[in-house]
Design goal:
- It comes from Bradyrhizobium yuanmingense.
- The chain is of the alpha+beta class.
- It has a domain at about 5-160: Beta Polymerase, domain 2.
- About 40% of the residues lie in helices and about 15% in strands.
- It contains ten helices and nine strands.
- The chain has helices at about 5-15, 20-40, 55, 75-80, 90-100, 155-170, 170-185, 220-225, 235-245, 255-265; strands at about 50, 65-70, 110, 115-120, 125-135, 140-145, 150-155, 190-195, 200-205.
- The strands form two sheets. Strands 1, 2, 3, 4, 5, 6 and 7 form a seven-stranded mixed beta sheet that branches. A two-stranded antiparallel sheet has the order 8-9.
- A hairpin with a 3-residue loop joins strand 3 (about 110) and strand 4.
């Protein structure tokens, strides 16, 4: 079995199941609808909401335990909580949390002081990041730590960058991202996990179960089908002229070589 067949078999084993995808979509729509009802006066299940993180970048793998959602709030809400007495960022997270609690039970604390956390019985956790969209398409989101502040991120740009690079590598970049997530738990005292720019090596103790020892390496030039840069005709001509313009190099023979040559010719050696 060749490299391509090995990778295809491994890829099929780490794909998220259709049942989990359906469950994620159902929960995502319920959360989005409730937030839209309270903040935008609409019952849309998709507007103002975006999958972010690994699921949004399409690099999540089977065994997904947390899912990130970004929800865009009206700019008027930003001004309301930016002028809030005390920690306005914490108050904003409390308002988003209160809205979600009409649909799902949430955790008491905020994840990293920036997201509202929803833990489900199947060990999948949703983290909702409330944000405000800027004219540059970046987001401003609340950070409730240390008295409160605003931070910026740009998940749309991250998603676009992954999509672009993955298209140039026959979609294998996303496959590789999922593969690395599956292999991450293999790290340990008797294990070595190495990732490189164009390939991955996964080494595991031989006592490990056979099914987890799946592959060794995928080399970039062979596997990723990276585009090869070719020189233009003027560039090739310029390089040819440069080579022709160089003065001929005289070969200098060492004394030892001269002595050997003299012996071969039968000349007396001085």
């Amino acid at each position: 079995m060749g490299v391509g067949e090995d990778f295809q078999k491994f890829k099929n084993n780490y794909q998220i199941t259709t049942e989990q995808i359906a469950s994620i979509s159902y929960r995502y729509k319920r959360i989005t609808r409730q937030l839209n009802t309270d903040f935008w006066n609409t019952n849309s299940e998709t507007a103002h909401s975006l999958y972010v993180g690994s699921y949004g970048r399409d690099t999540a793998a089977k065994g997904l335990s947390d899912l990130d959602i970004g929800f865009i709030l009206p700019n008027t809400v930003y001004h309301q909580y930016n002028n809030h007495q005390g920690n306005g960022q914490s108050a904003l997270l409390q308002a988003v949390k209160k809205s979600i609690q009409k649909t799902y039970r949430t955790s008491e604390s905020f994840g990293d002081g920036q997201v509202v956390v929803i833990s489900f019985d199947d060990n999948v956790t949703f983290e909702v990041l409330p944000a405000f969209e800027n004219s540059s398409n970046s987001w401003t989101f609340p950070n409730a730590n240390n008295g409160g502040s605003w931070k910026d991120c740009n998940p749309r740009a991250e998603i676009a960058a992954i999509d672009t690079r993955s298209a140039l590598t026959n979609k294998n970049l996303k496959y590789l991202g999922r593969m690395m997530r599956v292999c991450a738990p293999l790290r340990g005292p008797n294990q070595r996990h190495v990732d490189r720019h164009v390939g991955v090596s996964v080494h595991r103790d031989l006592s490990a179960p056979r099914q987890v020892v799946l592959l060794s390496r995928f080399h970039g030039a062979r596997f990723f089908r990276l585009p090869v840069k070719t020189r233009s005709e003027p560039d090739r001509l310029a390089r040819a002229r440069q080579r022709l313009s160089r003065p001929p190099q005289r070969r200098v023979r060492t004394q030892g070589a001269q002595r050997i040559s003299a012996r071969e010719r039968g000349d007396p050696v001085q």
